């Protein structure tokens, strides 16, 4: 195989990979700095009005983007966040610590569909919108209520509002046995953010799809 042939094949592979990646545009519309976390993707400080473009390969599952607040990092990218902290790293390698509002997704899954959701199963810290912006899909889901301000006293946390599973760690709230339903606490979240997961089995009203290859916006404080 000649060098030119190898180069052509590598170029075609790069083009194929790019065409099958979904682009997530993450925007901070909050009047304060938010440190976006993403798995896969890492993390980035977003001052008010700034955006971050993240390319995620087709077939990626178990992925999420979330806001982190009140962070301090040194020059090496080590530090801590009040909410959403990921092992003290600016560029996350693992999921964040509750409470944090989640934009979750799995790309090119069953029938080549993307599955997207907003989850409050790890609690809430910053309002957000998760919406498609290409491919003819017009899906837009949001959680913009003042959950921090209205949070029940038992669930309050510095900078956010915990999900009851985080606080009480019981099967009733965490659904470990697969035999659970809505609770008064989950209804607190659901009435304020009907699009979002309020407890782990909340699939029917909280899981949405778009065709594979769609690009998305995640907006903090929409």
UniProtKB/TrEMBL annotation:
Q: Which domain of life is it from?
A: Eukaryota
TM region(s), chain numbering: none
**Pfam families reported in the protein's UniProt record:** Thaumatin
- Give each disulfide bond as a residue pair: 30-221, 71-81, 86-92, 143-193, 151-161, 165-174, 175-180
Signal peptide (residue range)? 1-21
Entries under InterPro entries matching the protein: Osmotin/thaumatin-like_sf, Thaumatin, Thaumatin_CS
Q: Which UniProt keywords apply?
A: Disulfide bond, Signal
Q: Which family does it belong to?
A: Belongs to the thaumatin family.
Full protein name: Thaumatin-like protein
Q: Name the species this protein comes from.
A: Mikania micrantha
